[in-house]
Structure formats: structure tokens, C-alpha cells
Amino acid sequence: MPRRRSASSSSSTAPRNRTPQPVRVRRRTFGDFVKAFLAFVALLVLLVGVPLALAMTAGWPFPDTFEPMEWLRQDISVQTFLGILTFVVWLAWAQFTACVLVEMKAALSGVGVPGRVPGAGPSQLLARQLVAALLLVGATAASFTPGLSQLGQGLDGNQRPTVAAAQQTPGFFAQQQEQAAGAAAALAEQASHAEAASGSSARQEGDTKFYRIQPPEGRHHDSLWEIAERHLGDGRRYKEIFELNKDRTQPDGSKLSEASLIRPGWIMEMPGDARGGDLVEMPDEAPQVSPEVQQQIHDYARTGQGGDHAQGGGGSGAAQVSVPEQRPAPDPGHAGHQQQPDRQHATPAQESSSFGLPEALLAAPLLAAGLLGALGHRRRQALWQSAFGGVGGRRGMEPPTPTGDAQDAQDALLVGADPEGVRLLDRSLRGLAADLAAESRPLPTVYAAWLSNGDLHLQLAQPSGKPPAPWQLGQDQTFWMLAKDDAGRYEDADTAAPYPGLVSLGTMDDSRLLLNLEAVPGIVSLSGSEADRAAVFASVAAELATNGWSDRMTITLVGFGEDLTPLAPNRLRHLDDIEALIETMEAETRQRRGALGAAGHDSVLTGRTGPAQHTRWAPHLVLLAAEPSAEDAVTLAELAADASRLGIGYLVGTDSGDLPGAAWEMEITGEGKLLAPLLGLELDAQLLPAAQQRAVVELFVDADPDRGPDGPANTPPFLVDISEQGRPAVYARLVGPYEIIGLDSPDDERSALLHEALALLLLHREGVHPRVLSSALWPRGVTDDVREALIERLRSWLGTDPDGTPRLGTDGTGRLTLAKSVVSDLDVLRSLYHEATQGRGVDSRAVRGRLLTDALVLVRGPLLADRPEGRYRWLTHEIVDAQLPLLVADTGLALSAFHMEKNRAQKAIEAIEAALRTAPADERLWNELLRATHALDDPARLTALAADLVARSGARGLPPRTEALLDELLPAWRDAVAAAG
Predict the structure, then answer these.
(1) Which residue among 184, 374, 723, 930 is least enclosed by CB atoms within 10 Å?
(2) Residue 234 belongs to what domain range?
(3) Can you tell me where the transmembrane regions are (predicted)?
(4) What is the pTM of this model?
(5) Are strands 554-558 and 620-624 parallel, antiparallel or unpaired?
């Protein structure tokens, strides 16, 4: 496939890799022909003239006979030096000739970056520039891409007529399109004659002009971008052409609805200032145009008169692009009674107010879900380490309550996260890999994925046959599609993540694009301002570091994001400069090539389906924000030439937008648009601006279990008055079955919603953002009026305190808060334990025993034990499921120690057993139960307990500390348990 080069041979020192869509072909100027002629003359002189001159003046460089010993005995003379110099010149000529052949072969084949001729740096650079200049005016200078502009084209099912499908997939159905080439070529010739006959000087600025889409020439296909560049002088004006013609009926009966989807033979009305020889004036002024074409243009012109799309010049509407056909979205009004769906948007269109929450996180559901999951894992880790005496000292049962920007960021993550979408994506991809492995089929190379209303569309690098059920073919052989309902049938598959390099770039027409960075055939370049580029890089890095559809990977950051490490210390790595990056990647590239060869794999994709799938072939993704020098860019291009096979991806920033070796070129604008015109993409970019980046990192730093003893205190954020005078007005029992005391039951219709809303507020005494409340109750989104109606109904149900203060209030940040007169048993449990261990119970043994006993009596089971199916899904984001068992275990251990001080072993056993009902997996409780049972001096009972523990542990065996304790308390426990079993 021909290789794409930059417009100027002097501006690029390395060829570019193939990309998935034809790029524009620049019209050749007189200067280009002059450069090509001079390059031809230079090559002719260097390749032919130099050897002829040497042969005539110095003769053939090799001697007639081979007598090395005789040569050594000869005297060294001037003739000897001349002979050596002549041989060196011949050698330089041979090296330059090899460079020309290598560059010519690469340019004509279009495969990867040219090979390097040993020791020929300057010579190969000169050869590259001369070959580029020579081929600049030839057809071989164009580059072609396997159709990224078709990403997510509209789906009409598999019943689409063959011809229509062929016209929409230019890379693979060129033969069908060539059938129309003759008629279209004749029309082009007639249009050219009409242009010459009428004369451009006779045209007026307001004249109506038309263009007929041309048939493909070889592998080049017409596009609105190229038409705008040829006839309007700027490819970005393709929007004006689109606006003039969208939704107007074409001669074949179809309509232009997507800017990147045009067909040969279609007619395009052009803006009044369009110029060019292949434009057609109104047919009355171009009599050479055939009567049939005249009639078509007349009919088409009438469809635009007086319509909204007949206005030229403005192009104010947003360009439409090829995205998957949207299926009707579920009714949000019933979302609360359905399963949580895929959420392409964090909020529906009706929910216009963000209440100050950062929009960047609200609009990134997959990124938010990854960050929220990683943050929850980090907080649980901190809790467990504190409970089991880990590093950092005693952290307490409560994570720190974020404030300011960090609190807004956390709320935005809660609102925007789509964990169900992540789960479906992960299961679908792993399920596909498992199905293909079962059929002994390799994984296809996937360039990108689209998520549209829960449906998943994969674009393949090349046709790979029929996908395994329930996957279906999309609009052509390079698209595989999985409907959302079918994705729900997949269970967790024990297979490696097949495409861990997928990362969200943005949305387009309600569909979300994920680009597979490790599959790009070369470098992905990103241009734009430094701040805008950094926001894209940070978003990509954060999602790759925390996403839920990857197993292992390495992400190397250069030139940005030094503070991102807390998100995933095991994945993220920073390098100081480009030199360190090149040294690292050269070594890894060699290592991966050798490993693939030794394993007998063609690429990492085949390695991921083998026996070692869980330990090999994790991707390495390089994010380089700093623009490399010309020499470094060439080196990176050479490394990236084979990177997609090796599972290595490169995203590189550039100021100029012209980066050697860039396979796909993108630009981020100040308005948040991610543009790739030559790929047919215009996305609403997914960003993580600097302010949100700092806020997210702060959340992770505060939750770090290794922070040390200066971490948060052990005091709960909300303590209640546990005296008789502190009796609450409203008391909710959450630990066990849900029960509310002090309020009338609401009407049956809204009772479930009100109870769920109150439970969320009770678990967050610091306040709940209205958007967080609504997204928890209605995961699919809800309108502002419905949310406000619920809040008012909740306020009315809770009522007011005796002084007239509403029990549901609003703080200074707009968050909903409960009055101190509304408490839960979890609040009381925390307060009793705190008072017993850090308050009055410290100095009074009797008070401590009473408080701990009262606290343990409150424990009736797990949190919200009887919650209805399908509700309270927001609890998956909470860590209360880890906090409550630890709190109950701590209470049981404290009460057991209280009784053991007086040698009341049976009382201690009763306290431990009560705690085990809520925290059955806490090793500390079992160990303390062993000690208390041993204190009874009853070997048979201790042996029975040991046997019970062995049975509970199953194949995993006893934990090391428990096993060591049994060795101390009951040395013969193994034989005793075996005999009892």
C-alpha cells in the first residue's frame, strides 16, 4: 500500500505508516513538478553519473587477481592512497544506492517505516528526501487508511443491498464501485468542457454550482474534505457543503445524512465562491452536459430552494459523522424499576444544571467508574491495614471526608460513573476471546470500539469471517456488533483481557469512541495547545491506569502527569526525558520481538489466547506529551513501525501537527473538540483538566494506607448524644432489617424511593449532593422537576423539629443534610464504641463494659439486610460493607478483652460469637475465640473448634497466624482434627 508523506519533503524526514482511511491528495503545484524534476536529475547523477565517471577515470574498484600477500609486500605510494580513496568513493556510492532502493521499496509498498541501512544516516536521509520529492507528483505518494472514518457507520441490518454496502465501504468493495466509473468519468469530462466553454470570468459570486461525486481511482475515494480543499481552498469548509446538502434526496433515492458517507454519482450543491474545472454550472449554461444529468441537477436544485439546507457559506451546524445507528433509549421515567443500564452520558439532556460539579468527570462514565472503583479499593485497603495493625498506625474506621474541589470531584465520580457499562464491556470482550479460543480462531486486530445505547461495535483491521454468536456482522465485514441484551448473557470468563489498550477519546452523536492504542500501526499524534493536550493525556492515562477491562499493563508517562502516580502505582511509570524513553523502548522492543519469536506467536493477540495468557503480553502504552526533536521523532517512528504486533502503543504530542511516522493525526481545540479530519472524526473530547486532575489525585492520596501516623484521626465524623436526654426524633435501624421509628409510613407508591433516599443521607452525614441523590435513585437519569419533587416530598415526610427547623436542610454548598435529631443505629453504634474506647470508658471499667454490651446488642445482621432486589445499587460504591464488619469485630474484641480481664471466658466467647454473625470472615475474631476456648481448659471443645475452622477454610487452608496459634494452644491439633474428621 502506498505510503503517506508530508506535503513538503523537507518538513518530514521519515515516512508515515498506514492509517485506516484515505487521506487527502493535495493538488500538485508547478513548484512540486520542479522539485520532482530536480530530484530526478540528482538521483540520475548520483546513481548513474558517479559510477560512470569513476569507471572512466579510476577504473573498476576491484583488482583482476586476488593476491593479498603480494599486496602487503608492495610499497605504499601516492597511487596506493588514490586506490584506497577510489574504493571508499565506490563504497559510498554502493551505500547510497542501497538507501535509494530501500526508500523506494518502502514508498511504493507503504509497509511500515523503511529499514535502516547500517552506517548510512546522512546518506539515507538524503535518499529519503530525493525519493519523496520524486514521488510527490505521482500517485504513489498518496496514503490510504482501512476505514476509520467508517467507525460506527449507520446500521441497516444485514439485509442492506450489496451495491449500497459496497458504496459505503470504499476500502473493500472497490470492484463493485468500478462499474459506475465509466459514466462518472464521462460526466467529469463533460463538466470540464463546460467549465472551459463558459469561462470562469463570466461567473458571479452568487451563481449556483454543483459537483458530482467522482468514482474511485485505484484506492483513492472522493470525500467532502477533499472537495472542499480543491474547490473552496480549505478542507475544513466541508461542513458548508454538508449543510447545503444534508437530508436532500439524491438521484439514487438515498440521502446525505453523514458527512463521511458519500457515494459516486451523488450531486453536491456548492457554496457560491467554489472554483474548479470539474464543477458544473446550472445546466442551462453548460449545454455539453448530457440531458439526463441536466435533469438530475434541475431536480436536485429544486429540493434545496427555500429549504433550510440551501443556504451557503455559513456552515454553522455541527458536522454529522458516521456513528452506529441509535436504538430508542429506555424511558427514564421508569428507570428506577429496571436494571441499571449502560450510561453513555452521566446525565440526561434534561438535567442541564451541574450544581458546580466538574463537567469533565460527569461526561466520562467509563473513566469515572474506573476511578471510583480504584478509590474504593484503596479505601478498603486502608481500613484493613488499620484494623490488622498495618503500616501507618491506627487509621480508624472512617476514611477522611473530602472537602472543596476533592468533594466536588468525588460527587462527580458518583454521578458520572457507569460501572454496569464497564462490566458489560469487560465481559463482552473476554467472552468473545473465550468463544474464539473454543473455535481455535485467533483474535482479530481491533482498531476501535463504539458504545452506543449499550450496543458494542468493534471495527476490525481486516475482515475476519463471521463472529461467534451472539456477535453479529455490522454494516460490512470489518464490523462486529453485540447488542446490549446479548451482552447481558455473558458471565465472567476465565480468560485474559483481549484488548486492554482500549481507551475513551470522546463522544460523537451520543456514541462513545474507544481507540485501541496498542493496535495502531504507528504513532498517534496529538496537536493543540499545551494545556488542552495535557487534559487529553491525563484523561487517557487515568482511564488506562484504572479501567475495568484490562488485567495488567505498563503506562509510561513522559513530559506530564508526575502527580498521577497515586492512581495506580503498579501501572504508571514516569521517565525524565525522551532519551530515557528511547533507551527503554529500544530494549523492550528487542525483548518482545525475541519473546514472540521464541514462543512461536505472530503477535501478542495469539499469545493472549494461549496457556500463558494471564502472565504474558500485557500492553505497554507510551504517552509522550513533549514534542520530540526531528531525530528522536524518526527513532520513535522506527520503533513504532512494528509496535502494534508487539502490543506497544504510542501517543505523542506535537506543536506543529506534523510528526514523522504518525499513523493517525488528531488535534484538540480550545473548545474541547478532538478533530481527525482525515479519519472523518470530530469528537466531544474526553478531558481531565488540571484542576480536576489535582482533585482526583487528592482523593487517592488521602486514602493511601501508607501515609503514616499523621493520617486521619479515629474520631467518627458524626457522634450522637447517647444519654437519655439525647433520644432522637427519628430513629432508623439500618444494621439488619430496615426499620424507621418516629415517622408515619409514606404512601405505598413512593415508600421505596423515600426509604432509599433517607438511607443514603443517613450514611453520609457530611451531606449529599442533589445530583448524587438523583443518580443513586435513578441510574438512567431523571429530569430536574422529578428530582426536586422527590426532595420536597422527603422534606415533608421528615417534618420539622420543635423549633420549626426542617429536618432535611441544605448546607452552603447546596448539599442535602439531615438534622441531628435524625439518627441511625449505625450512628449510635459508632458513638458507643468511640465513647467506650476513647471517652468515658477509658477511665471507668464499668462504663466501658456497659457501652460495649449496648453496642453489640444493636447488631442484628448485615447492613439493610432485607433491601429489595434491584434497589440500593449505589451501595457498590460505598465502603460501609467493609466498615461495618470491622466496627462490629472491633466491638466484639474489645468486649471479649473486657471479660477476659476477669477470666470470664464463657462471656468472652459469647461476645465473639455475636460479632462473628456480622463479621464471619474476620481472622482476628477466630483467633480470639481460640484463646477464649483454650482458657476454658476443655481440649475436646478446642479440638472441635479447630476442626470447624479447618472445614471453613477449605482448600485454601488455615491462615498462617491462625495455624501458628493452634500450634501453640493445641500442638497435636492436626492429628486430633484428622481423627475427628
Answers:
(1) 723
(2) 217-274
(3) 36-60, 80-104, 125-144
(4) 0.66
(5) parallel
